[in-house]
TrEMBL record:
Keyword Signal found: yes
Signal peptide stretch: 1-16
Protein name in UniProt: Uncharacterized protein
Keywords assigned by UniProt, alphabetized: Cuticle, Signal
Entries under PANTHER family matching the protein: CUTICLE PROTEIN (PTHR10380), CUTICULAR PROTEIN 47EB-RELATED (PTHR10380:SF233)
GO molecular function, one term: structural constituent of chitin-based larval cuticle
Keyword Signal: yes
Superkingdom per UniProt: Eukaryota
Gene Ontology CC annotations of this record: chitin-based extracellular matrix
Organism: Hermetia illucens
A Pfam family per the record: Chitin_bind_4
Length: 102
């Protein structure tokens, strides 16, 4: 009896594992790092995933210098929903907003 339960449990675990679908190609990307320390980049994958970010140095040369960042990312969840997050990171910390953040 214990063997049957163990076997059924193993079958459930094995059947729940998602098969590896291979690498998803990047179809578009760019990056720019400037002499003043600012930067931006973006990339998009063939599955529609997207990431965009830019950063700028604020209060350059002072003791209160920091990088202010704005960005976003998007991807398709396993259940087919588009998940999108927009964020900032600055003197107020990391602040995300998005479809799955409440």
């Amino acid at each position: 009896m214990h063997r049957i339960i163990l076997l059924l449990g193993l079958v459930v675990v094995v059947s729940a594992v998602q098969p590896y679908q291979g690498a998803i190609p990047i179809i578009r990307s760019a990056a720019d790092v400037r002499w003043d320390g600012s930067y931006n980049f973006h990339y998009e994958s063939a599955d529609g995933s997207l990431r965009v970010e830019e950063g700028n140095i604020v209060n350059k040369g002072s003791s209160n210098e920091y990088v202010a960042v704005k960005g976003s990312y998007r991807y398709l969840s396993p259940d087919g929903r588009t998940i999108e997050v927009v964020y900032t990171a600055d003197e107020n910390g990391f602040v995300p907003r998005g479809t799955v953040i409440h």
